[in-house]
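Batch manifest line 423
LIGAND: pyridoxal-5'-phosphate
JOB: complex structure
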Amino acid sequence: MQRDEQIFELIEAEHERQLHGIELIASENFVSEQVMEAAGSVLTNKYAEGYPGKRYYGGCEVVDEVEQIAIDRAKTLFGAEYVNVQPHSGSQANTAVYHACLKPGDKILGFDLSHGGHLTHGSPVNFSGRLYNPVFYGVEKETGVLNYDKIQEIATKEQPKLIIAGASAYSRDIDFERFRTIADSVRAILLADISHPAGLIAKGILNDPLPHCHIVTTTTHKTLRGPRGGMIMMGKDFDNPFGITLKNGSLRKMSSLLDSAVFPGNQGGPLEHIIAAKAIAFGEALTDEFLHYQLQIKKNADAMAKALVAKDYHIISGGTDNHMMLIDLRNKNISGKDAEQALVKADITANKNMVPFDDKSPFVTSGIRLGVAAVTTRGLKEDDMKVIVDLVDEVIENYEDEATLEAVKAKVNAMMKDKPLFV
Ligand code: PLP
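JOB STATUS: finished
ARTIFACT:
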């Protein structure tokens, strides 16, 4: 068979783009060589519907071992009692949880998308907002942080069946214990979606949801630095405290409801090559090196936020506890869309983002979201964050000046040229 040069040239072009640019998209990262090797391995050839030891296909002895190792490592990493590593993505993980816990039309309480939540937390353009009945909580206008008393008030008034704690663009730590008190007061199921800060949580740097939330979902490819994918976990509640009764009257453990919701409820064959890559990433995450990496993320994010504030950038909530920050650009007279486009011209990638109480559409937006997980993987430290902020500021102050954007791009390329993707 002839090698498909057309596609391989594009892959090389993307490799060059990643190498020469500064990656500030908060949901992205660079995986290790061994994670990539597993993701591109012969395991992609194998069908394995079912779970280890209970498959619907022959020849699953090897992938059974791989999947079990992934499960066991994830349990150790997060202190979980139950883990399902099969969701193809974070959205699939959330889909499966809703499928297991809710009926169409049931009420869910999630973090408003424009305040930092995710599409799958009840947005009207997503299945979660179309199939279920969403109500939302948000951040305070003055402080940009969550007000748990208000969330309690909304929960009491709305009586949701499921509450989602977690976000895509919230830079503060989340009080999962308080969320559980709120959920218990209305007998709601509490789901934590830790897709963004999972790596920081795994190493004990942020609040741990496992002791408090009934169910925890995450992606595996953000701060956790694994392959693109999702995962579902349960802590102490895995024996099903909700007394969920199925139509035929039988009571099943929540864990088996979740397993069935993933397969056969929402997916067919699991991606065993990706599950192998997840297992490797979890193995890497169990090391002390990964702790140092997460600590460096925290230091870098803090250094970046402080440098931005010093240049009069309005970070929602005033700073960050995790790997990211959301910036309201309205005092800089530039939209999120224009900022994103100008930054791309300078080989800096970030994404436009709605800010709380935004007056612009989701296609334009008033903000950008920045994250440091990817640049930290490339070995950058606090002083580099100050340089990056200078470059970002130069772009934003001169976003219509092509010559300046070209000059910044040259500086970005010079800064990144000797930095491998994964240190
Ligand atoms: N949940 C949160 C909080 C996210 O930020 C994301 C992705 O950005 C997801 C779920 C969905 O993940 P995926 O893109 O893998 O479907």
